[in-house]
Amino acid sequence: LDRAFPRSARGALKIGRTLVALATLLCFVASSAHEAYAALAGMETVITLLFLLLYLLRLDARMRCLFWPLADIINSVLSALFLLVVCLFAVIIKTNKGTLAGGVLGLILLVLCVVDAVLLCKKISLDKARGRSAPAK
Description:
The chain is mainly alpha-helical. The protein folds into 2 domains: about 10-95; about 100-135. Helices cover about 75% and strands about 0% of the residues. The protein is built from 5 helices and no strands. It has helices at about 10-30, 35-55, 60, 70-95, 95-125. Helix 1 (about 10-30) packs antiparallel against helix 2 (about 35-55) and helix 1 runs antiparallel to helix 5. The longest helix has about 30 residues, at about 95-125. The radius of gyration is 17 Å and the shape is elongated. The mean pLDDT is about 90. Keywords: Membrane, Transmembrane, Transmembrane helix. This is CKLF factor.
C-alpha cells in the first residue's frame, strides 16, 4: 500500500476526479437525464477509481505488461473529449436543474482530466533520462 500517493498532487487529483465524477453521475441519475450522460459519468467514475487503486496498491509496478502512465494519459484525453461533447449538450439543453448541475460538474471534471494528463506528461518526460547521458542497464 502506497501511503504517500493520496497525499501527492497526482493522488489528490485522482481522488478529486473520482469524487467529481461520482457527483456528476448522481446529478445525471437524479435528474432523469439522457442515459448517455449517466453512462459517461459512470464509466469515468469506475475507470478513475480503478486507476486510483492501481497506483494506491502499487499494481503498476507489478504488472509491467503495459506502460500505465501512458494508458492513464490516453484515458484522460479521451475522457476530456467525451466530457466536452456530452457536458456541453447537457448545459445547452438543460432539461432541468439536475442536468445543468451535472453538465457544470462534468465541465469541471473535464478541467481535472486535462490537468491530470498534463501532470502525467510531465512525469513521463522528467522521470526518464534520455540521450547519451542515460546510464546503461
